């Protein structure tokens, strides 16, 4: 299960994207308009972590 981390980075994903991922419990969500590059990088990284953890 994905949980919100108490540690937040200034360069982390946009809050709306993080909320969408947590609600969906998946990296399969749409990117945020105006933050496409950041969104895609975050979602790719998240999916890689989920794959590595066999989730």
Tell me about this structure:
The longest helix has 17 residues, at 36-52. This protein has helices at residues 15-24, 36-52. By secondary structure, it is mainly α. The chain is globular. The mean pLDDT is 84.
Instruction: Tell me the fraction of residues in β-strands, as a range.
Output: under 5%
Which regions have little confidence, pLDDT < 50, spanning 5+ residues?
Answer: none
Task: Determine the number of helices (DSSP H or I, runs of at least 4 residues).
Answer: 2
Q: What about the largest sheet?
A: none
Number of strands: 0
Question: What's the layout of helices and strands?
Answer:
Layout: H1 15-24, H2 36-52
List keywords for this structure.
single chain, 55 residues, mainly alpha, 2 helices, 49% helix, globular
